[in-house]
Design a protein that fits this description.
By secondary structure, the protein is of the alpha+beta class. About 30% of the residues lie in helices and about 35% in strands.
Length: about 70
Amino acid sequence: NVIAVQVPDRPGGLAEALTILEEAGLNIEYLYAFVSKVSGRALVILKVEDVDRAADLLRGRGIPVPHPEEVYAL
């Protein structure tokens, strides 16, 4: 399982999301960044050790985590 994360499309835009996961002690196994933009943001796919916890943490800190159906529709 993976999660999609919307981040600002600028240098360092992914840093906030990665910091949140690091502070929570969640390891990232791999990630893919997409050129396609969603709402003016870049879309990054993350494989983390605990998908549900990561999604809850990111959403709780204001990082958009779209539902899989939204990502598949791109």
